[in-house]
């Protein structure tokens, strides 16, 4: 993960706060504000081993009940005061009942994409300093279902933001960080991931240090990360595959959601 010690960083959705604690203690950026979705009591109940008090002892502000999709929550942090806003291993919370799951009109795939899109929109609108580094960063796993969100593609369709590239996330860079399962006091064993970077600046200097994966090139199926195809037959076989049709269903549902939203906003 590429970070700069000169950055003023805001972390969001940081479950047990161990990522923020690791950053504060072992990386020490110019400034750090940490935030979590839960209230202090929910966090302490959910994760017995949490870094809430330890961050407090280091003098780091922790903002609780910070929902990245809610514009009002972004008023809890200083406006336009950050260089980078980081969301580690995002995932929508579990539904609180079978009924709320059934009442949901969007698929779980689209809901996760919506969470991340709204995170990037709100980070740029409220937290990022227009005179700063202006980066939205998401670290996610390189396996299903996370790779089914087309993060590098249609996530930001129609926004004035640009996907800059990615870097490998190495847990060894972050001592004492425990990557959490959503809403559970368990940490995950497979810690490999990819950190994805976005900015309103398409010519951002950080691009030099980031990698743009081959699967975004021609002769690949970007949504499936498949290819390179050696000929048309190879490509057609992929387009006809179960994997592609499944991915296409996710992608169509998402594009459908975006076009419905665009009509509502007109
Ligand atoms: C898989 S956990 C990862 C937790 C932590 N970031 C880590 O790396 O261990 C997903 C996290 O996303 C958070 N989250 C989900 N929806 C959110 C929202 N709307 N706003 C803020 N955080 C959210 C959850 O509270 C949960 O802590």
UniProtKB/TrEMBL annotation:
Signal peptide: none annotated. One of its GO terms (molecular function) is rRNA (uridine-N3-)-methyltransferase activity. Pfam families: BMT5-like. Residues 10-180 form the 25S rRNA (uridine-N(3))-methyltransferase BMT5-like domain. GO terms for biological process: rRNA base methylation. It comes from the Bacteria. One of its GO terms (cellular component) is cytoplasm. InterPro entries: BMT5-like (IPR019446). This is DUF2431 domain-containing protein.
